């Protein structure tokens, strides 16, 4: 009888001990889980910060040549040029209509000569808003001077002016741009040289001991030329952001291009 009581007491004591051990371990496990959760949350926060989208300035480029980040002077100039191209300032959709008409002709020609696609914005900057002939005699889509046009295979005389033929003048421009790249080895410098002339550009590079377009001191027109090209690229690729209602033809063309790039 005594033996049975001893066994019963032993079992009860054992159960009490186990209950205490279990009760002690539960908060510890909860703390451990809490620490893990905090750690996971912290990691997720860090990951979110890392995946934060790049700023607009970091995304901007011309022919894959980016703006120097952290340069307040460059950023200020870029923002000012972009603001000048808002619909609220230009008050016209003609650039988007011309792009829808011109780009399908220009792009394949540039590609055939190995010229970056971003140069398709040159005619929009050169003649998109004004057109006609400049006071210096430059004319056509790519605003060629008569002598330069003839040098690259265009007929310019009293009867014919092939500078006003989009296809032929684009072929001439592609040849000229390709030649400029063999001299400057930088697409931003090529664009600047297209605007001001290769001889003048070479002189400035030698005089300033500088071959970074964004850090050079150039005349007002040339110094802002690449900024204008980047701005034109922006308003064509993202018209809504800048207050435009792009024609359906251009939107469809952009969508088709984006789809083909994704497929590649």
Structure characterization notes:
It is a single chain. With 264 residues, this protein is an all-alpha fold. The chain folds into 2 domains: 52 residues; 208 residues, Orthogonal Bundle (Lysozyme), CATH 1.10.530. It is 66% helix and 2% strand. The chain contains 13 helices and 2 strands; from the N terminus they run ααββααααααααααα. A two-stranded antiparallel ribbon has the order 1-2. Helix 3 crosses helix 12, helix 5 crosses helix 8 and helix 8 crosses helix 9. About 6% of the residues have low confidence.
Task: Outline the secondary-structure elements.
Blueprint: H1 2-50, H2 56-59, E1 61-62, E2 65-66, H3 72-84, H4 87-90, H5 94-112, H6 122-127, H7 146-151, H8 166-184, H9 187-196, H10 198-208, H11 220-223, H12 225-237, H13 248-263
Antiparallel strand pairs: 1-2
Helix pairs in contact: 3-12, 5-8, 5-13, 8-9, 9-10
Protein name: Membrane-bound lytic murein transglycosylase MltF
Organism: Pedobacter africanus
Outline of the structure:
This is Membrane-bound lytic murein transglycosylase MltF. This protein is an all-alpha fold.
């Amino acid at each position: 009888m005594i033996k049975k009581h001893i066994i019963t007491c032993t079992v009860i004591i054992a159960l009490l001990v186990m209950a205490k051990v279990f009760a002690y371990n539960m908060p510890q496990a909860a703390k451990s889980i809490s620490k893990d959760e905090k750690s996971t949350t912290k990691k997720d926060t860090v990951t979110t910060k890392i995946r934060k989208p790049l700023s607009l300035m970091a995304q901007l480029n011309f022919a894959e040549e980016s703006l120097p980040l952290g340069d307040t002077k460059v950023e200020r100039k870029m923002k000012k040029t972009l603001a000048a191209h808002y619909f609220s300032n230009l008050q016209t959709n003609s650039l988007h209509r011309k792009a829808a008409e011109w780009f399908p002709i220009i792009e394949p020609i540039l590609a055939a000569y190995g010229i970056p696609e971003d140069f398709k914005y040159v005619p929009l900057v050169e003649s998109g808003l004004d057109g006609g002939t400049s006071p210096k005699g430059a004319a056509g889509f790519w605003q060629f001077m008569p002598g330069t046009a003839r040098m690259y295979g265009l007929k310019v005389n009293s009867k014919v002016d092939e500078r006003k033929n989009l296809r032929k003048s684009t072929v001439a421009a592609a040849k000229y741009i390709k030649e400029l790249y063999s001299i400057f080895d930088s697409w931003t410098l090529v664009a600047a040289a297209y605007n001001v002339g290769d001889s003048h550009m070479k002189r400035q590079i030698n005089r300033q001991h500088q071959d970074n377009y964004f850090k050079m001191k150039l005349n007002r027109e040339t110094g802002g030329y690449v900024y204008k090209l980047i701005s034109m690229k922006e308003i064509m690729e993202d018209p809504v952001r800048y207050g435009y209602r792009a024609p359906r033809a251009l939107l469809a063309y952009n969508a088709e291009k984006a789809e083909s790039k994704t497929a590649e």
